[in-house]
Write a structure and sequence with these properties.
Strand content: over 45%
Strand order of the largest sheet: 1-3-4-5-6-7-8-10
Largest sheet: 8 strands, antiparallel, barrel
Structural class: mainly beta
Helix content: 10-25%
Order of helices and strands: HEHEEEEEEEEE
Distance between the termini: 39 Å
Number of helices: 2
Number of strands: 10
Shape: elongated
Amino acid sequence: MSGRRFTLAVLTVCMTAVSLCGQVKHEVRIGWGDMMFETMAFHDSPAHQWVAPDKITPGYQTTDKCNHRYTGHLFADYHYHVLPWLAVGGQLDFEGIFWDEIIYDEHHVQVGAARPVQCYNTCIMPVVRFTYYHSKWVNLYSGVGIGVNIASDNAGAAEAAVGFNLNFFSVAVGNEHWFGAVELGMLNSLQNQNRVYMLGSRLLSASVGYRF
């Protein structure tokens, strides 16, 4: 191979590499998602109104749960675009569920002060995303992630369980750098059929992000 041809080959390889590097982009974003599963699984107890409270055994007590509050899913993630249609990265998702527990006697009179309960789910997942439509302003994609969820509370308890997210369909709209996205999916976490922390949670989410 002559020197001219060798130089031309090197330049071609370099230009191809630069072109590919231009297609590979970093992406960061933050977002919020619903807690539909949690609002159905954790809700206020029905009020107890005993028909004949004097006939109930003295000293009887019952605990009601009330004043439920929910943070929604707060999440942040990073993606690295290996190919125009393939990105890999990681996601951190956090949610909080809060309520008060109040003890009542047989006459439904409060006994003692309300006890605040605070429960949290912190899910850390590697993720893979597949973009099947790409244009200057609109991207359509789906993805999957699997990792670990840490379920904890304000009493000091903490348990680890499998966490996985299925992203069925998503739309991202924006320019070269800034964009907004809406996702349809489901975030899940469980140890077994009796220890379910999330099931079909974060069905809908919205986020804003930046590519660079």
